[in-house]
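wait is this the right file?? whatever heres the structure
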């Protein structure tokens, strides 16, 4: 049978088997050409937009934070494993460093629980009677992102994940609503989709990626390119240790009024109260 297929393919006219004969919308090699980048950008903007519209997503809350912060039980296991490794070679500086990092991760692991509770609280409050308001959106990965999606799943609600192709393998966390799990190639389009329906941005401790998303949003608010997005930073001590906000104003690099572009909160309830108050209170349909 395989031979027959091979013979049949070999007997087809060469102009039918040429790549030029493949319809443009089915020709993957053609669509990946550099000249087709504008088309790919448009498709990457349009596909998630159409799906969100079909799913009835009216508004969202974006949650950012480190992919490296795991739930407390896993953080404790990681610390014990690091200590066991150090015990085999107490003078090894690398093993010493691993213990120190594991201790810090455990100290920060409570943020996972706060993110999970925030996702549950908002979703249970807003996704009622079939309405899709204030839907939790994350970058789709592990850590704080997983926690927020997991909280929405705890409430039996929808949540979204905007994953992105990276040099190292990255899989979406299992708590995202499957038909709201997107994969992007372009960071710019991913960032646009984070904010298109956003009513708030809730930012947990994190690294470069978290800071990138935070400062892009603050810049858009500062310049009036976007409006009516409440920015909440979870963990005031962390954020004030990381960034000297007042110095930026004192040096004249930002205006004093720019310090009102964000708020601090310590708990899920405080964050939700800030968002709800800034948007006139959430009224269930």
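ok assuming it is, sequence goes like this
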């Amino acid at each position: 049978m395989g031979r027959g297929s091979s013979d049949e393919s070999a007997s087809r006219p060469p102009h039918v088997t040429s790549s030029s004969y493949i319809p443009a919308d089915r020709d993957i090699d053609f669509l990946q050409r550099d000249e087709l980048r504008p088309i790919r950008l448009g498709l990457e903007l349009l596909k998630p937009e159409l799906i969100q519209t079909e799913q009835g997503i009216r508004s969202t809350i974006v949650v950012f934070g480190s992919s490296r912060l795991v739930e407390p039980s896993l953080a404790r296991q990681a610390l014990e494993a690091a200590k066991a490794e150090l015990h085999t070679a107490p003078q090894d500086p690398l093993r010493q460093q691993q213990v120190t990092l594991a201790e810090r991760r455990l100290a920060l692991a409570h943020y996972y629980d706060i993110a999970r509770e925030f996702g549950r609280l908002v979703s249970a409050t807003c996704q009622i009677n079939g309405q899709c308001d204030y839907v939790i959106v994350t970058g789709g990965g592990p850590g704080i992102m997983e926690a927020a999606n997991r909280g929405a799943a705890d409430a039996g609600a929808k949540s979204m994940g905007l994953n992105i192709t990276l040099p190292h393998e990255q899989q979406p966390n299992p708590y995202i609503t499957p038909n709201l799990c997107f994969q992007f190639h372009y960071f710019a389009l991913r960032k646009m989709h984070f904010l298109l329906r956003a009513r708030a941005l809730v930012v947990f401790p994190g690294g470069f990626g978290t800071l990138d998303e935070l400062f892009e949003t603050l810049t858009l608010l500062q310049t009036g390119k976007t409006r009516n997005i409440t920015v909440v930073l979870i963990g005031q001590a962390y954020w004030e240790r990381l960034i000297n906000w007042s110095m930026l104003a004192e040096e004249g690099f930002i205006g004093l009024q720019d310090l009102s572009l964000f708020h601090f909160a310590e708990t899920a309830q405080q964050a939700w109260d800030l968002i709800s108050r800034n948007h006139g209170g959430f009224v269930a349909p």
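The mean pLDDT is 92. so i think its the right one actually
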